[in-house]
Amino acid sequence: MKLCVIGTGYVGLVGAAVFADWGNEVIGVDIDEAKIKKIERGIMPIYEPGLSDLVLLNVKQKRLSFTTNLKKGIQGAEIVFICVGTPQSKSGSADLSQVWQVSENIGKFMTDKIYKVIVTKSTVPVGTNEKVKQILKKFAPKSAKFDVASNPEFLREGCSVKDMQKTERTVVGTETERAMKVMRKFYEHLNMPIVECDLRSSEMIKYASNAFLATKISFINEMAQLCEKAGADVVKVAEGMGLDSRIGSKFLNAGIGYGGACFPKDVSALRRTSLDFAYDFALLQGVMRVNDVQKHYFANKIYEEFGGENLSGLTFACLGLAFKGDTDDTRESVAIKIIHLLRGRGAQVRVYDPEAMENAKRELGTSSVFFAKDKYEVLKGADAMLILTEWGEFKDMDLTKVKKLLKKPLIFDGRNLLDKKVVEANGFKYLAIGRKTGSQKQKAPDFRAAIL
Ligand SMILES: NC(=O)c1ccc[n+]([C@@H]2O[C@H](COP(=O)([O-])OP(=O)(O)OC[C@H]3O[C@@H](n4cnc5c(N)ncnc54)[C@H](O)[C@@H]3O)[C@@H](O)[C@H]2O)c1
């Protein structure tokens, strides 16, 4: 099939490459000229395992090309995927300006006679696809034949190529059987369940999924705080819970809270949607508040260990900057937020991340942060090591080397990544999330009252 993918970010670029690899003829369109030039030179603007090879292969085989010219992109396309950003607006709802802009342009340029399905892959609130259709109708020539469809994306950054190549489920919302037939044909080779529904249910499925996962994270983070006060170990609690197939073990890792370009904005947008429909989805308010508190709970451990408000004269070695492991994405990264909190109290930071250094430089500046070249250089002379992102390479640190490089054998593990027993047996003081610290019972800091 001939396809156009608009927006070549984490979703669109991966989508364009995977769809081309399925044998389709794909044009990726973006307004960002520098990004398109970079991709054309074979340099990926984002880090995703397997992406570079897949793009290069499909470009070479002439199934995949890129342009900034939307008119050229949609000419002859049977399916047009909208994959532009839907960031959080000031009110907490989704900012849909990119979607409206693209819809207007698609309408204006829909001059060929080929029936098209205009598919929104971007995460958009309920009712958006109906508005997309209205905009298309307003700007497209009367002769243009098209339908809209909602086909939300569920990929996970860090394994998005694999996720898209073999998705667990596909959700398609349409208003017409004709559009559904096109989408069925497009996905049928995957042999995976397709949830066929109306536009609004499809839009809602995406938000419901992300909000539910965020709820799981906030739940276990609250459990972590309770475990710590009650002398239980949240890692064991999560293990015990997760073996129940009704609960499942995924998204039960207590940590410093969820971040990234999706969960924070999507939970917030769903809450806004509920209020727009005069319904108070109170649970989501709790999920967001717990998530906001979690980074302070972690930072508070550091303040307590070093005796309070003022951290000047102290240096922290921060391992991890990306919002999670296996990605270079630092959007809404809790690691970065914690670094800001520490610097706000006068601390110096040395930082390292395997992939997110460039993005982090933009967020942290380069003047007073030391960007180390590896996971050991970052530790030199620091007062403590902080694990802020769950990269696999931080799991197997050489603890003898770590001890030599740090001023004190002190580790704050914001991701419960290390084996507590091993770390403590190597003579470290180990402060993690929701875990007992040796025989010593944790104090119960009452920092929440000040935040909530
Ligand atoms: N990143 C994820 O893990 C993920 C997963 C599932 C769904 N989503 C959703 O997918 C959407 C895209 O997310 P993303 O992370 O890929 O965003 P992104 O910011 O990485 O990419 C968006 C791209 O759209 C381009 N763009 C903006 N306006 C344009 C226009 N008028 N014409 C052409 N291109 C334009 C931007 O230049 C950018 O390259 C969002 O709605 C997001 O919520 C993201």
Summary of the model, kept short:
The protein is α/β, with parallel strands linked by helices. It is built from 17 helices and 14 strands. The protein has helices at residues 12-21, 33-40, 51-60, 70-74, 97-109, 128-139, 160-165, 177-187, 199-230, 234-242, 263-276, 282-305, 334-344, 357-364, 399-405, 420-425, 448-451, and strands spanning 2-6, 25-29, 64-67, 79-82, 116-120, 146-150, 170-174, 194-197, 315-319, 348-352, 369-371, 384-387, 410-413, 429-431.
How does this structure look, described?
- This protein has two domains: 2-197, NAD(P)-binding Rossmann-like Domain (Rossmann fold), CATH 3.40.50; 232-451, 3-Layer(aba) Sandwich (Rossmann fold), CATH 3.40.50.720.
- The chain is 42% helix and 13% strand.
- It is built from 17 helices and 14 strands.
- The chain has helices spanning 12-21, 33-40, 51-60, 70-74, 97-109, 128-139, 160-165, 177-187, 199-230, 234-242, 263-276, 282-305, 334-344, 357-364, 399-405, 420-425, 448-451; strands at residues 2-6, 25-29, 64-67, 79-82, 116-120, 146-150, 170-174, 194-197, 315-319, 348-352, 369-371, 384-387, 410-413, 429-431.
- The strands form two sheets. It has an eight-stranded mixed β-sheet, sandwiched between helices. A six-stranded parallel β-sheet has the order 11-10-9-12-13-14.
- Strand 13, helix 16 (420-425) and strand 14 (429-431) form a beta-alpha-beta unit.
- Helix 9 (199-230) runs parallel beside helix 12, helix 11 (263-276) packs antiparallel against helix 12 and helix 12 (282-305) crosses helix 13 (334-344).
- The termini are far apart.
- The model is unreliable at 438-442 (pLDDT under 50).
